[in-house]
Amino acid sequence: MWLYLAILVGLYYLLRWYRERQVVSNLRDKYVFITGCDSGFGNQLARQLDLRGLRVLAACLTEKGAEKLRDQTSDRLETVILDVTKTESIAAATQWVKEHTGDRGLWGLVNNAGVIHSVTYSEWLKIEAYETVLKVNLVGVMEVTLSMLPLVRKAQGRIVNVSSILGRIAFLGGAYCSSKYGVEAFSDVLRRELQHFGVKVSMVEPGYFRTEMTNVQKSLETLKQTWEEVPTHIKESYGQKLFDAHYNQIKQSLLGSSTDLNLVTDCMEHALTSVHPRTRYSGGWDAQFFFIPLSYLPTTLADYILTRSWPKPAQTV
Questions:
Q1: Can you give the pTM of this predicted structure?
Q2: Which among 31, 176, 181, 238 is annotated as catalytic?
Q3: What angle do CA 189, 191, 196 make, to 5 degrees?
């Protein structure tokens, strides 16, 4: 029995490997629009697809980021300034893409732009922090997608939404996790709604990576500032000792993050260029071999594994 099961599993993965190796034709004629290209995954993906010969339309938040990217790529790549929190900016970018793609439509839309506040206890964050993160990471993804959707539908193309492993299993950073869970839900709904239009929707769920968004010094400074602004009665509940321990844990986590961004951008590229893209991609070894398996465990066991090393608050029951 076990032999037959092993053979079936082996045949399944062999078939999947064969299907996923099939590449879309005429890639050099296809346009891909990527948000958040100033740095990190978006910047890396833009350069990667440009080398492959695709027509990259890269959206940057700043002119400085756009200029730097243009200096590193071919003349095929073009840039536009985009703030995903502003409707007028999204409308202008959509018109710009429409003028560039013409009758071909937009083959690929990669919603990569994102922000993170302090990865810390939910009670320490002001509601403004939640609003900012949700506006960029979730509402921005929704508005850009809905604005560009007619162009993607025309090309029978691809939508690639960058979620996070924290969109599969949530712990710390209530604002960030909430936004990524929203991206997961929005992507699932889109995938089912658009299947009859020939549009494929994929999610990329990176683990811990070192990007500008997770810059160690900036992240730790933000964490300190967040703690300083916490109301006194909340500080007394948690205690300075807990904060110090939490600070060190976050520091070690940031320092231990992977610097190999290709582990994620290769997933994005596959979602855009494979005839049979996956629904979900887990980017990074920590995502594949720790967080994803952890997400399938019973909740009580997952809670224990995730929180067993957390420091205890000053005031406990």
A1: 0.93
A2: 176
A3: 115
